[in-house]
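Reopening this ticket.

The earlier resolution said the output was attached, but the attachment link was broken on my side. Pasting everything inline this time so it's all in one place.
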Amino acid sequence: MSICAAMIMAAIVSCNKDDNGYSLGRVWRSVATVDPLGKGGTYSLTLDDGTRLWPAGSDIPYYQPTARHRALAYYTILSDTFHGYDHAILVRGIRDILTKPFVESDLTGRNKSSDEFGSDPISVIDMWYGDGYINVHFGANHGGTKRHLVNLVQVSQSGQPYVFEFRHNAFGDPGRYGRRSFVAFDMEKLKFAAGSDSTVTVRVKTFEGDKSYKIVCRRSVDKTIPYEEASLAREELIDVE
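Inline output:
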């Protein structure tokens, strides 16, 4: 398998140098959906604008993909239009993002009290809809004693716009330092009107007070960011649940 992968990489890189000018020294970062293929650990990646990426090579060959899961992927583009995919890539790094369903309104009182969801503040760095998920990049204060809990709780049961609350429970963890996290909420169960953009409102308790964010639920432009290779070591994300 390693020999085959090396041969594919060599062929792609050869075409790359001649045709499209992609630099092997450039690394891109994207939030993507992981799409497992079979049982052998093979997978592809789908970006928020529908772009499909085929990992022709990987610096982390033992990564185990999970269906309907989001990940923060670092990759180098090798070529365009590779066997039905938009790009062939070299995976330089991949970090799974907490991916979970939103809490439906009719389950809120039955499963958990409002206090269990928490009301600790956060700082919203970015929030957007992409590939069927509401994605939240946020900051919170941590003390390193407990893992924090986050949820997207539905407030309105039906109709549009849907209203949600982003809830954060630090479980009394002392706020000694700020850390960033990612979470993706699977919105597959929402029923949007056909033929038009739909909007959801997300209420958030921030360090500056209560805020509301209106999120347009349509296929979005991909948030790819060019990175220098050295920056891979500077990602300081903390896990939440």
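Reporter confirms the inline version is readable. The radius of gyration is 20 Å. Confidence is low (pLDDT under 50) at residues 1-8, 13-19.
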